[in-house]
Structure formats: C-alpha cells, structure tokens
Design goal:
Protein name: Helix-turn-helix transcriptional regulator
Number of strands: 0
Radius of gyration: 22 Å
Organism: Alteromonas gilva
Domain HTH cro/C1-type: 6-59
Shape: elongated
Keywords: Membrane, Transmembrane, Transmembrane helix
Strand content: under 5%
Helix content: over 70%
Largest sheet: none
Structural class: mainly alpha
Pfam family, one: HTH_3
Length: 137
C-alpha cells in the first residue's frame, strides 16, 4: 500500500487516525500499522478506498521488489531458520537422553517435540499469510 497516499488522503480530510479507524470499521492499531509499514489485507484496502472514494489502483503498490517486502521476507526466513534449529536441538536432546528415559517418556518427549514443531510452523505460516507473504503459493 502506498503509505504517502494513505496519509495524504487522511490529512486532506482533516481526520485523525482514530477517526479514520472508526469510519472504516477498523482498529486504531490497524491504521497505525498500515501507515507505518504499508502492509495490509485486501479487506482493509477495500475499506480505506470506500471511505476515501478512490480506486484501489491509486493506493495499492506492487510490492514485488520493494524494500519493505524484502525486509518482511528476510524476517520470516530468519524466524524459519531459528524454528528449524530449535526443533533439531529438541530432537537431538531427546535422542541424546534416550538411555535415561523409559519407553513411555521417550515417546512422550518425541510427541511433544513433533507437536511443538507443527504448532510453530502453523503459527509462522498463518502470520506470513496475514502479511501477504504466501499469496504466490
């Protein structure tokens, strides 16, 4: 989203962020985040365009090579690497202590690591999807 167009439209109408949020049916935090990062959902873009009575083409920026898109991509990539490393450490820890665990303790430990891994990946994927990082998949 073009942050400058959004801010200019809001200022042109003499609206505060709080007022814009109220008339759009969005939270103040959403308006603040959009004005800061330019990252938002299609629903938010639609609400803003309806309130400002502008076409989406006027406010939407193609984010294929922008620095913000690149920054978010690298943040998620780093989070994914950290997640993978922590999972390997967890699995290694379980297998390293195999001699001191009973069979049931071993199975519970492995299941716990697997469940944590799944939930972590799921949370990361949902977060990336909300930021528009998974649209091409």
């Amino acid at each position: 989203m073009n942050i400058e167009v959004l801010k200019n439209q809001r200022i042109k109408n003499n609206w505060t962020q709080q007022h814009l949020a109220k008339i759009c049916g969005l939270s103040l935090r959403t308006i603040q985040r959009v004005e800061k990062t330019g990252i938002t959902s299609a629903e938010t873009v639609g609400a803003l365009c309806a309130v400002f009575k502008i076409n989406q083409k006027e406010i939407v920026v193609q984010a294929t090579n922008t620095s913000m898109c690149s920054k978010v991509y690298h943040e998620y990539k780093a989070a994914l690497y950290i997640l993978l490393i922590s999972q390997f450490v967890g699995i290694f820890g379980v297998f390293y202590s195999i001699n001191s665990l009973s069979e049931i303790q071993f199975q519970i430990a492995i299941a716990s690591v697997c469940i944590f891994c799944f939930l972590s990946f799921f949370t990361l994927a949902v977060s990336a999807h909300k930021k528009g990082m998974l649209k091409e998949l």
